[in-house]
Write a structure and sequence with these properties.
Layout: E1 2-6, E2 12-16, H1 17-23, E3 28-30, E4 36-42, E5 45-50, H2 51-56, E6 63-66, E7 79-82, H3 84-89
Antiparallel strand pairs: 1-2, 3-4, 4-5, 6-7
Length: about 110
Amino acid sequence: MAKALQLRGGVSTYLDDADYDRAKDFRWHKTQNGYVAGFVMEQGARRRVYLHRWLLDAQPGQFVDHIDGNKLNNRRSNLRLVTRSQNQANRRHNRTSRSRYKGVTWHKRRR
């Protein structure tokens, strides 16, 4: 069962029950790039973390993918540890791109 966790600014993120109980004691907010971030106490130090990385205890060099692309859906069934290339393959098409394809750009002089 998913629970909605209120973020600053009136936005909500969705978490599994066990993760909700773990995250509810911290203050979370939606960042400019759409992810949920906050400050947690770890080993006596206050540290800024992304919620999806904190939930899966992702180590440096590991990537966490939101399977459905919704950065506010932080249920475990929607999160997976992936490689950099897997994460890039699952990214959305850039709406402002002039090309219809991911990763394709126009050569500036040959256009």
